[in-house]
Amino acid sequence: MTVPFFPKIEQESSAEIFRYQNDKLQEALSYLNVASPFYKDMFRKHSIDVSKINTLGHLVHIPVTTKVDLQTRNDDFVCVPKNKIIDYITTSGTLGDPVTFAMTDKDLDRLAYNEAISFTCANGSDADVYQLMTTIDRRFMAGLAYFLGIRKLGASVVRVGNGIPELQWDTIQRIKPNAIIAVPSFILKIIEYAEQRGIDYKSSSIQKAVCIGEPLRKHDLTLNTLGRKIQEKWPLKLYSTYASTEMGSSFTECEEGIGGHHHPELIIVEFLDDDNNPVKEGELGEVTVTTLGVEGMPLLRFKTGDVCHHYTNPCHCGRNTIRLGPVVGRKNQMIKYKGTTLFPPALYDILDNIDFISSYIVEVYTNEIGTDEILIHVGSKAPVEDREKDIKDHFRAKLRVAPLITFKPHDEISKIQFPESGRKSLKFIDNREK
Q1: DSSP string of 212-238?
Q2: What average pLDDT does the segment 21-44 reach?
Q3: pTM above 0.85, yes or no
């Protein structure tokens, strides 16, 4: 049987994928050299002849593009006249000031195609009914992308948006979707709501969840604490995804659950160290992307700030593409704490594993001696102030260091974590001196 959105190139050999991407790179560079004020300036400044960059291995001769470049020269990345722009999208600004992206009609078609092949990767089909639990407004890309992709796939979508557990369950009971698209920690929130109100959620129509924004797996690709908690409560089939506005594409898990698959027709991906050199498989590297087929604001060697492992061994699903492991952390969120290097997800995994903690916020600030300090704001539905030692013992056992702890009412933490006007759940506050 032919699967409509299972691209042939993803089933080809690694050598054929490499040749295919070499050709696509040439097209991308030629376009940038003509249409992009930013990249024309870069090529001129560094005396780069794009006609001589004719293989992926030559990319190392081109400087990387950073988030700061996008923030300071946002308009210079736009490659089309204003009358060709159909949609304006803004990043969430996790690592600094938000950046606006200009999307043409062609770019929106590309976005829909990306999501259609990504949903197919996550065992999706035109028979599915997806309940969308992410915002589709506020200049956010994700909700729009999912809507467009589901439409292209031929499936059905119920646009509920983020938050409001009562409306989520009312919609599930009325329309009976078989799949949800949600932030994993919000799935726990709607489970909690159902348990408090006697809703038999395990017998509902929902069979699977496409999860965004938070990792579900550890480095060894087994479920992390958050993923295990969801499955222990509600045995859904979980598919993890990784994406960003800048790349306009995503890495999505297949049935095997061993990393998100790369779509070579949409982006070139590199994994770089601090000196912008490629890392070997098994080493942590910063995800760096070159977009293919983007018309409005294409990017070349853009460093996302996300640090991951990657895998190249074959997958039983038939795709021979690179796979991306869970995001270990963001480069700008790396914490140096008492001689130990940490990323926030390592702290989340410990906190998610402590039963009496119902909500939390991790705050990092610069202390009086100029080093990083970690303060964890813990929420609980019962008095737990006497459990500070237990919490610190969990951290010492896993990380050898223990952060500062403060206790607040569960509702107070929960309101900060899931702001009504927010686009993403908030777990990390960085108050360090810059």
Answers
A1: -SS--B-TTSSB-HHHHHHHHHS-PEE
A2: 96
A3: no
